[in-house]
Design goal:
365 residues, alpha/beta, OB fold (Dihydrolipoamide Acetyltransferase, E2P), Rossmann fold, 2 domains, eight-stranded parallel beta sheet, five-stranded mixed β-barrel, 12 helices
C-alpha cells in the first residue's frame, strides 16, 4: 500500500528537463518532493499536490523525497498528438505511452525490421560495458573519454531499478555535458531520448540506427538488495551480458568492489559480481581489474580468478594498470558517489568502472 499525503507547494527548489524539485508543506512541516513533469506536469507555488511518501517515510537510500502523484489544483495540459502505442510502466495508474524504436509508427521501424545486421542480431563486436550500479556510469564514461574522447557513446538504461530516466540527475547532467551521444530506455524503463521494447533491440539500434561506437548499460538509480543470493535487482547484469554475447558484441563487466563497505558480503569483490560470474553468465565477458599491489586489488584478483573457475560462461580476466585513471575521474562533470560514499572516501568502485571504460575504448582501435 502507498502512504498518501496532500500538501501545498511552498517553493520550487530546482528544475531540469523532466523533473522539478519542490518544497511542500504537509501537516505543517516541510517535505522535499519531486515532480516528474512528463507524468504530472509542473506544479506551481500555491498548488495543492497529492504525494506518495512511502519511500521517504522508510528513509530509503535513493531519492530522499516524496513523489508528486497528481496536482489537485490544475491538471497538466494534454500532450500533443503523437505516434506510438507502446505502453511502459504498464497497467499502473501512471502508465506512459511512448514511441518505441521498433514499432510501426517509428521512423526507424523499417531499419529495425529490415536491416540485415539487426535481423541477424549482429553487433559486429561492438564493445558494451555492463555495470550493476548506476552510480558508476560517469566513471565508465571518464575511462572511455581518456582513450577515445570523440567516441559516440549510448547509455542503455534497463528496467531493474528506477523506471523513469528523469529520476537520474547524473544521467541528465552527462547528456548536457556531451558525455553521452544518446540515451535509450529499455523494457519498462522510459524517458530516454529513445525507447526500446527490449535490451536486445536497444543495443542493435545503438549500433546500426543511431551510429554509436559503444554502449554503457546499467540499471537506473535505486539498486534493491535483500542479503540473499538471488534477491537483488543488479542480477539483471547477467542477463545483459548474455544479451551482448547472443548479439555478437564484446561484453565488458564492471565488477562491483569496495574497499570500505561495512558489509562483509560487499567488501573486496561483492558477492553480487561473484554470483553473476559463477551462476548467471552463460556467454563471454571481460572482467577488468587493476594491476596493483595495493589493497584490496590482490584479494579482488584472487576472488575473480576463483569465481571464473566455477562458471558455465566464459569470463576472461583483464588486468590493466591504473595509471592516469584518477586524473580521468577528476574530469567528471558530476560528483562521484556510490552507496553513499564519495570517491574521496572510497575510490575502488570508480577505479574498476573507469578501467572497464578504458578497456572498451581500446577495442575501437
Amino acid at each position: 500500500m502507498i502512504h498518501w499525503r496532500s500538501g501545498v507547494v511552498r517553493e520550487i527548489t530546482g528544475s531540469r528537463q523532466g523533473a522539478t524539485r519542490l518544497r511542500v508543506e504537509v501537516d505543517g512541516s516541510d517535505t522535499p518532493a519531486l515532480a516528474l513533469t512528463g507524468l504530472v506536469g509542473s506544479p506551481q507555488v500555491g498548488d495543492t499536490v497529492l504525494l506518495n511518501i512511502s519511500a521517504l517515510r522508510r528513509r530509503l537510500g535513493t531519492g530522499g523525497h516524496a513523489l508528486v502523484v497528481a496536482n489537485r489544483s490544475q491538471l497538466p495540459t494534454d500532450p500533443a498528438e503523437a505516434p506510438g502505442h507502446i505502453v511502459k510502466a504498464r497497467y499502473t495508474p501512471l502508465q506512459e505511452m511512448v514511441l518505441a524504436l521498433e514499432e510501426q509508427e517509428s521512423a526507424h521501424h523499417e531499419a529495425m525490421r529490415d536491416h540485415p545486421d539487426i535481423a541477424a542480431g549482429d553487433l559486429h563486436g561492438m564493445p558494451v560495458v555492463v555495470a550493476e550500479l548506476h552510480s558508476t556510469l560517469p566513471a565508465v564514461l571518464a575511462g572511455i573519454r581518456s582513450v577515445a574522447p570523440d567516441a559516440r557513446v549510448a547509455y542503455v538504461m534497463t528496467d531493474s531499478a528506477a523506471l523513469p530516466f528523469a529520476l537520474s540527475d547524473s544521467a541528465a547532467e552527462l547528456v548536457d555535458a556531451g558525455w553521452l551521444a544518446t540515451t535509450i530506455t529499455a523494457g519498462q524503463a522510459f524517458g530516454g531520448e529513445h525507447e526500446a521494447i527490449t535490451v536486445h533491440s536497444a543495443l542493435l539500434a545503438a549500433r546500426h540506427v543511431l551510429g554509436c561506437d559503444l554502449v554503457v548499460m546499467a540499471q537506473g538509480p535505486g539498486n534493491a538488495g535483500s542479503s540473499t543470493t538471488w534477491g537483488w535487482s543488479g542480477l539483471s547484469t547477467g542477463d545483459a551480458l548474455n544479451a551482448v554475447h547472443v548479439l555478437r558484441g564484446h561484453a565488458i563487466a564492471v565488477p562491483r568492489v569496495s574497499g570500505s563497505d561495512p558489509r562483509p558480503r560487499h567488501l573486496g569483490l561483492s558477492h553480487h559480481t561473484t554470483t553473476v560470474i559463477t551462476r548467471a553468465l552463460l556467454g563471454r565477458a571481460d572482467v577488468v581489474v587493476p594491476d596493483s599491489d595495493q589493497a584490496p586489488w590482490p584479494r579482488v584478483r584472487e576472488q575473480v580468478t576463483t569465481a571464473m573457475a566455477s562458471t558455465a560462461g566464459f569470463p576472461r580476466l583483464v588486468v590493466l594498470p591504473p595509471d592516469g585513471v584518477a586524473e580521468a575521474l577528476s574530469s567528471s562533470p558530476v560528483p562521484l558517489v556510490s552507496m553513499g560514499r564519495a570517491a574521496a572516501e572510497d575510490m575502488t568502485p570508480f577505479l574498476t568502472a573507469a578501467l572497464a571504460g578504458r578497456h572498451a575504448a581500446s577495442l575501437l582501435s
